Amino acid sequence: MVAPTFNTMQRRCGFTGFVTLCCLLLLECLKVAGNVPFAQEVSHLHWHRAVATWYGSPEGDGSDGGACGYGSLVDVKPFRARVGAVSSMLFKKGEGCGACYKVRCLDKTICSRRAVTIIITDESPGNYGANIGRPHFDLSGAAFGHMAVHGRNTELRNRGELPVVYRRTPCKYRGKNIAFHVNSGSNDNWLSLLVEYEDGDGDIGSMHIREANSNEWIEMNHLWGANWCVNRGPLKGPFSVKLTTLSTGRTLSARDVIPRNWSPKATYTSRLNFL
């Protein structure tokens, strides 16, 4: 096929259309140069309205574990004091676990312009957001107070419920690679994995594993929260794991990340991450 000339494209599209075409071509070039397609950026500039509450101790880190299954990870950095429970529309039956959001309160008399970044680790009790017709964030006491102007953290927490705005933001776990925790009860016929420290989208749309000396990717089932499982055996390690994010469909494959002599309750860290 012969590429159209400059004059031919100009006649077909008109000058305005030609300029538009040039802009589109430039965007395509930028996508390639950045090696991350614009459609795969999880960050959004548009803010959405929601309400926020807080739970736990006033300066505390929030939940102990939570509906995503992260367990004691929520008590230590980088999760510590950044955890948040959300209503069902954001929790997405557990597939929203691990997603990161910026949350900022709107009352200028007491709120700073600073947004707090939180990680979804739990679901709001009683589907709170659905009852008020608006997305809901239930933050740790520390995260909630962080939205206040200097010195007014306690006063802000005393409000109890706040109008806020929120938007997605890429997760960033500096110095961490994606890890896979083998859940208790796993055996050669039933393998369950919890995904930890996923940069970028943070959420998971699908997971597959591949056994040693095999070309077949076996699809895992979403169990609950950030936990996935496969009921098929006997399974033979080492296992490669392939993740596909829920938000943008980006894929990452960690080869032989779970060794042949794997054991339940062990965590195996890959050499990879999305960012």
From TrEMBL:
Source organism per entry reads: Gossypium raimondii
Q: Which GO terms describe its cellular component?
A: extracellular region; plasmodesma
Which Pfam families did the record assign? DPBB_1, Expansin_C
The stretch of residues making up the signal peptide is 1-34
The similarity comment for this entry is: Belongs to the expansin family.
Q: Which UniProt keywords apply?
A: Secreted, Signal
All copies of domain Expansin-like CBD, residue ranges: 189-270
Q: What is this protein called?
A: Expansin-like EG45 domain-containing protein
Give the GO terms filed under biological process for this record. Answer: syncytium formation
